[in-house]
Amino acid sequence: MGDESGQQKKALVRWFIRASEVPLSKRKLLGRDPHPQEIFYYKGRSCDDEVDAESIIRPVQVLHLDAAAPFPESCDEDTLFVKMSWDSKTFKAVTSDQVDSGSADSAPSHLKPSLPPSPPCSPPAAAPATQGPSCRVLPTPDPAVMRKASCRETWSSRSAMSAGKAGRMEAESLHSASKLSASKCLSAKWTTAARTPGIRKKLNMSSPQKLSVDQDVLDRLLNEELESEGTLAQRLSASPPRAPPPHAPPSRLTPLKTAHSAAIALKPLSVIVNRRTSSDVDSPPSPTRPSTPSRTRPVQTLQEKEPLLSDLPELDGENSPSLPSGAGPRTSKRMSARLVSSRIRKQLNLLENHLDSDSDRDDQDQFVPLRTELQSSSEEDSGDEEDEEAGPPKRRRRGQGGGGPRTPRSRGQTVARTPRKTPNRKATPSTPRTPHRATPSIPCRSLPARRPANILEEARIRLHVSAVPESLPCREAEFQDIYNFVESKIIDGTGGCMYISGVPGTGKTATVHEVMRCLQHAADVDEIPPFTFVEINGMKMTDPHQSYVQILQKLTGQKATPDHAAALLDKKFSSPTPRRETTVLLVDELDLLWTRKQNVMYNLFDWPTRRQARLVVLTIANTMDLPERIMINRVASRLGLTRMSFQPYTFKQLQQIITSRLDKLKALDQDALQLVSRKVAALSGDARRCLDICRRATEICEHAAADPSAPGLVGMSHVMEALNEMFSSAYTTAIRSASVQEQLFLRAVIAEFRRLGLEEATFQQVFVQHQALCRVEGLQPVSVSEGLSVCQRLGACRLLLLEPSRLGILQRVRLNVSQDDVLYALKAD
Amino acid sequence: MSKRKVKDAHLPVGECITQLQKILRERLCNQQLPEKPEGVGAQHKHLLELLRRTAVHGESNSVLIVGPRGAGKTMLLKSVLRELLEEKEVQKNLLQVQLNGLLQTDDRIALKEITRQLHLENVVGDKVFGSFAENLAFLLEALKKGDRSSSRPVLFVLDEFDLFAHHKNQTLLYNLFDVSQSAQAPIAVVGLTCRLDVLELLEKRYIERVQTQLSLPQDFPDEKFAKDWNESVKALCEDKSVEEVLLRHFNCSRDFRSLHMFLMLCLSRVTVAKPVVKAADVLEAGRLCFADAKADMLHGLSILELCLIIAMKHLNDVYEGEPFNLQMVHNEFKKFLQRKSNSMYNFEQPVVLKAFEHLQQLELIRPVDGSSAKTQREYQLMRLMLDNSQIMEALQKYPQCPTDVKQWAMSAFG
Fold it and tell me: Bias regions of kind Pro residues — which residues (chain A) (predicted)?
């Protein structure tokens, strides 16, 4: 079963969260100090329920306690307590059956998987089995991931979730089907982690020649890691040491084996890790294995055959029933994946021959009877699982195509490719799944990004426009209005339009996104009915009609021509369907969807008015009077009168925004901050501009600091300099650094304008003045061609506006700057 | 002095001069970057810091380098990149995309070029690229995948940045800047343009630079020759008249390319017989550079055509720049013949028409915009494309110009 997809197994998990993984700002919501062994039942949706079985580390006990009950004086460090649930917003009390049996899944026992590189902890094999339903495995998070999770607390709640996710895994049961999601998310995290991830080590180990060396290396690495993590080590020391297998001491390091042995003990109720995976990891047999050999005998022959199968090209088709005919027409990528998997199998085959012990064979065979048990015991789940199984193999294959065929030397790249397979992608229905479509991505960096070294660098990261703030200060009222509007439409199952206007940089798009995040969350916890969110941006398409294509693609994943897509959408929104979800459509940069007939806008605003459509359209543009200005009446009337305009930020709001972004980081002087915000508020109220100036000021401060390692606070002078850079007239600088003749020519232009009383003159007229000025200045008068070239240079800088140069001396000249500016610049020279 | 040098030279002087010209030409033709950019130290440091932060910290940035043509924008960027790529950490990470507004004339071509340079086309295999819309979605998806710390930073260099701003809706620019402002793959956008502003200040070093440009490197094979050459260049730079020419050139433009052009002219006059640049050479080159093209053209005209031009000049004076036609010009010419001329005689109308058309072909006169081709050629309205000063200058130099024609040209009224 595990072999059907090569070498991956998945585990259904439920997520718990440690108190330390709750964002700092939310921790106070708990109202008390968390118990050191307290965990919270995690109710956020953005975690993948399935993880790679390899990532399981060891079992722990999770005990449910009443909210009011005190924590028992437990001395066992493998026992964790659940009192509350956490849904990324609030803590709630949780009932015991919620925790124990979950909502839908009835798998009675739970294994908590954790991540490689796992510490060498071997759980007491017998202990979990006796615990029955409440048996869990403690997630021992990768220290790197933990660090990352904690350092990214300023991120949006969603990203915080995904970052912390790795630590919150909990297995409900392990199924031997291919699953990568956990390892995907892990490897995404690991690209920045300084330590050598375990997965890479495992890959390494799968080549038999290197086996012994690499295991030693792994051993050492893991030990180092272990020592560096004090708390972890402490916990680990509590778990009883496991007898090392006779011939391969490193085996105790492999996380898989521990999960495996734990699973054996639990056999009747759960869970086993696939043999394939175990042999991938080259974990030698565990001595604690007496329970099942007799039952597994019958299947052994099948196991023996497998390496032969693996050489056949049809391997995939035979082994994975979920992809019956997929292997044939696929692209070369699949081909390579198959090659890779067969190569791996060959190697494994070799390896198995090397390892001669019987117990190894027992190990291999164990999964089969367990599998049958599993199927019978978790029939309720089977529907779910089949759905899930249909999806994953594709993804896995692609990932393998990218990473599989590489040798251990190119590991950096293997991992580098993986981040695109984050579980988040699975959550978005928009990703097209057409078979030929490949997902592009920027290659990953071979060296990790450097971490900010001092306060200023940290501040710069937080001040960057791209940093997503945890909350949006100063837009509470607008947030509430939009939230109420959309929420009411979703609850009522009706549709509607809303027009949001405001000058650039006032937080329109950010607010709407925040609303959507909150609503999505509310939908996740069943406060409101579920809905679909689709976003299009007028600037990100080449033609207004492309919006149909994009909407259709994001809603259904279909690809179509614009006309066809429009027809399909029209049909979709006008035909009555029971139990249709509300669709929320965000149209950014609405003004670019303008066409002469305005049919795109018309359709977008007409669909919500249909009774069955259940479509909420939020439109964003810059100008307040856009509906009146560019829309014909029938379009404007369909848009309706729900308008909202975002006012430019006042200086106090700007100040608050920056303060909240810096979040107690002492990088900016208070006066300097006020100066920036006042200056920007007086000009545009653009928050982006404000952030940019602050960022530039930190750069200037860093340069100015005598000691680069300890730069001081950003003061008034730095901010002034940054402001001058941003707001100083480019023209003035240009005129001042122009050559003498160019300056003379500008003066001649002004003189001629004054003489004519017009703002325009021919070159010939100006040239006469120019020659006169030359004589006054004591310079040799220039020839006409020289004068023309001077004029052309000024025109190229756009200080002058010129007619095409083929007109020669007859071309007309106009100033592109005001006369006063020119005179000011020339005088100050 | 030069003869003495020839005797002392270890190498044949011809070889020396060939080598010298080769070295200096390379330097003048911008084939190699200068060791250290001069006069733009602050900008250099700033840009280097900015790009380094993108490469090392994954911080998205965008910068616009503005300056007049020939001010050294590209040189600045190139030298910054050269320095940046010497760092190992950067070299391994940074991806570069070079675009030029003159080559990528619309967003569709630009997108394809970006995809090609990022080697993303491998992802789609041999599949031929679809529509523009697909292309855009493809690239955006690729960029969206990355995040600050894991993806390799991409450096977009947009040469002739202003031309990209003319693309429809500025789709490319919007999306690039949008990516740089959101938490996607880290990118740095560097725009180079000559519009709007001048950042570089090149003023006073200019004349000094002439010397550095022309001096020889130390490893020139013949030391003696090199020393003499450098000395002569130094002497040259102290010469009053040379300085005047250079100053005049500098007053006119601060463009490096035109200076290089100018120095090339000097350099090409160096031969075996005359192995140093003399002041006279510089003056001659200056004369070549500053010469007025149109005035030179007048020297090649026949006397009839010149007379027609003078008649037009008078018409321009009388009617204050109003357009004229052939009949008016011919009348003016005839008046001159009747009153003053004794060396010239009247031409037939077809001959005058021929001369007139020749002038039009030379673009010394051009038809007024509104006048259609339907009107008879004799009555088509024309404008003179020459300035009075150009005409007078040409007359001074015209070989064997009749005195009465000269006088006619100088007189206030026809």
Answer: 114-126
B107 Cβ under 8 Å from any chain A Cβ: yes
Across A401-415, A439-453, A694-708, which has the greatest mean pLDDT? A694-708
Band of the pLDDT at A752, cuts 50, 70, 90? Answer: very high
Q: Which fold has domain A730-826?
A: Arc Repressor Mutant, subunit A (1.10.10)
- Whether the full predicted model's pTM is greater than 0.80, yes or no, is no
User: A590-602 in b/e burial notation, b at 16+ Cβ within 10 A?
Assistant: bbbbeeeebebbb
Class for the domain spanning A475-645: alpha beta
**Best residue in B135, B145, B287 to probe A by mutation, most A CBs within 10 Å?**
B145
Q: What was the pLDDT predicted at A168?
A: 41
Same domain, B268 and B331: no
User: At residue A406, does pLDDT exceed 60?
Assistant: no
Q: How would you classify the pairing of strands A582-588 and A531-537?
A: parallel
**B357 touches A: beta carbon within 8 Å:** no
| A739 → closest Cβ in B152, B194, B252 | B252
DSSP state of A443: P
CATH 2.30.30.490 fits A11-98, yes or no: yes
- For residue range B101-142, list pLDDT tens digits in order: 888 888 888 888 888 888 776 655 545 556 777 777 777 777
DSSP A786-823: HHHHHHHHHHHTTSEEE--GGGGGG-EEEESS-HHHHH
| B174 vs A: CB within 8 A | yes
CB A25 within 8 A of CB A69: no
Q: pLDDT-based confidence at A396, cuts 50/70/90?
A: very low
Is the pLDDT at A341 greater than 80, yes or no? no
* CATH value at residue B315: 1.10.10.10
Q: Share the mean pLDDT of chain B.
A: 72
CA neighbor of B308 nearest in space, from B382, B248, B244, B367: B382
E strands in A560-708: 582-588, 615-621, 643-646
Are the beta carbons of A367 and A152 closer than 8 angstroms? Answer: no
CA A503/CA A501 separation, integer angstroms = 7
Of the partner residues B69, B138, B385, the one whose CB lies closest to the CB of residue A809: B385
For residues A350-376, give the mean pLDDT: 43
Q: Tell me how long chain A is.
A: 829
Q: What is the mean pLDDT of residues A741-755?
A: 90
Please tell me the total count of domains within chain B: 3
Give per-residue pLDDT as tens, A546-585: 889 889 988 888 888 889 999 998 888 888 877 778 889 9
B261 and B182 belong to one structural domain: no
Q: Is residue B379 part of a domain?
A: yes
- Domain assignment present for residue B3? The answer is no
* Contact call for residues B271 and A808 (beta carbons, < 8 A): no
Q: Is the pLDDT of residue B7 over 50?
A: no
pLDDT at residue A180 tops 60: no
Contacts of B142 in chain A (CB under 8 A): 440-442
Whether residues B272 and B315 share a domain: the answer is no
Claim to verify: residue B152 and residue B205 sit in the same structural domain: no
**Residue B323: closest C-alpha in chain A:** A810
Q: Are residues B240 and B304 in the same domain?
A: no
Enclosing domain of residue B388:
295-413
Query: What residue of B is the nearest CA neighbor of A816?
Result: B196
Boundary residue ending a domain (B193, B227, B256): B193
- Answer with the one of B240, B265, B290 that is the final residue of a domain: B290
C-alpha atoms less than 13 angstroms from C-alpha of A395 in its C-beta half-sphere: 25
B18 in any annotated domain: no
Nearest CA-CA partner of A117 in A33, A243, A7, A203: A203
**Which tokens is B342 given?**
């004794």
Cα nearest neighbour of A422 on chain B: B145
ipTM of the complex: 0.77
Q: Which helix (H) or strand (E) segment is B209 a member of?
A: helix B205-214
